[in-house]
Fold this sequence. Notes:
Elements: H1 2-8, E1 12-16, H2 23-35, E2 42-46, H3 48-51, H4 54-57, H5 63-70, H6 80-86, H7 92-103, H8 108-113, E3 117-124, E4 129-134, H9 141-149, E5 159-161, E6 164-168, H10 177-182, E7 187-191, H11 207-212, H12 217-243, E8 246-249, H13 264-290
Parallel strand pairs: 1-2, 1-7, 2-3, 7-8
Antiparallel strand pairs: 3-4, 3-6, 5-6
Helix pairs in contact: 2-13
Amino acid sequence: xxxxxxxxxxxxxxxxxxxxLRGMFTNGVLDVFMSxxxxxxxxVGVSAxxxxxxxxxxxxxxxxxxxxxxxxxxxxxxxWRSLVKTGNFVNERFxxxxxxxxxxxxxxxxxxxxxxxxxxxxxxxxxGRPVYREIADADGKGLRWMQASASMPVxxxxxxxxxxxxxxGGLTDCIPLKFIQRxxxxxxxxxxxxxxxxxxxxxxxxxxMKMFLGDYPKVAQLMAHRHVMYNGELxxxxxxxxxxxxxxxxxxxKLNIGRLSLKEDKxxxxxxxxxxxxxxxxxxxxxxxxxx
Length: 292
């Protein structure tokens, strides 16, 4: 009995990979978690894992799918027009000012009072190193950190916070399991947005991209070597899973949705895939978190 109680008290973490609109799979998983009262002591999100995952801490099931469906055809939300006019494919004013405060209000108070710790991963574009920012209050600067975590090179301008500039956390740490382990969380659930057998190929950083990133040479270097980092993290995940203290949730097959695709049928299909996967794994997840 004492051994079982100790297992139940082991700090539990949740790790959310990014992937743009592939994150609809993660939304489906998290909504199942909320409907079944599954909680964690801490979570860390990268890119879409942060901007969608924050709704798990604010206890707002369905919100991420809802507002993406509602505004999918609004060029003021996500569009090439916004990219040309503002430098951001995801319009900053719409997504980080109007949306969370007026159009589909984010529950800042619920986020603040939820005791689960929340971290977002960003990349410092000068040092080329990951930054793990704990966000206790999503209002104001907290939203800036989430925006930075999800700001993809070329498709977004660097986000300035306290005099430093940041971009997508996926440049330096796509699946931050090691980080959450370093923070003391010993039983962790990791939600991936690619099938288990996926391996990233080397990206070709052409002259056009280098022109856009001319002021940030570290970013171009990171993009050219990102596949090495990512595939190494996958290998580490498999090792930790075999040890029995990491539980992986992933789509059964490639999701076939672009990072910036706002097609309703695809978003719904990917979301439902997440719901189905989490529902099927629910008994195993509960046993894992209980230390059984």
